[in-house]
Structure formats: structure tokens, C-alpha cells
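Course assignment 3, question 2. Fill in each field.
Student: A.L.
Task: Predict the tertiary structure for the chain below.
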Amino acid sequence: MKSLWMITMVASAMLLLVVVVRNGMSFRWLRRFALHLVAAALVLYLLNYSGVVTGFEVPLNPATIGTVVLLGLPGIALVLGLQMTLF
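Answer field:
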């Protein structure tokens, strides 16, 4: 089953690359996304270990980092609010 998922992931990544190259899109959006991804992970890491928000620790996983990349600062508030509500 893992092989099937890996083949699907590789095939979809290759097809995405073909679409990007074929349409002549620049890789500027990829650099920008990578920068936002690194910045979101860094902000969450600093938030966890700075002690600004006591009693909460936001896990560094793809879901939380993706939420912060997509929403920015409101994403951090959303993650903290969900954690406060659910746990």
C-alpha cells in the first residue's frame, strides 16, 4: 500500500512540474511559498520556546504550518484557539 501512495505522489509531482514548465510560469511563486513556509515554521518554533504564550505548545506539523502559511497571523490565533477549545 505504501508503494501505491509513493507512486501516486511521485506521478502527481511530475505532472505538476510538467504543467508549470509547459505554461511558462516562473518559479517565483515556488520561492515565495518556500519563504512563507520557512517563516511560518520559524514563528511557530519561536512562539513555542519563547514563553510568550504560557500553557500552550503548538506542534510543528504540516497541518499547523500550512494553516499559518495560508492565513498568516490569524492562522496562529486559529491554531491556539482550537487548542484552547479542544484540549
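Instructor remarks: The chain has a mean pLDDT of 85. The chain has one domain: 26-86.
Grade: pending
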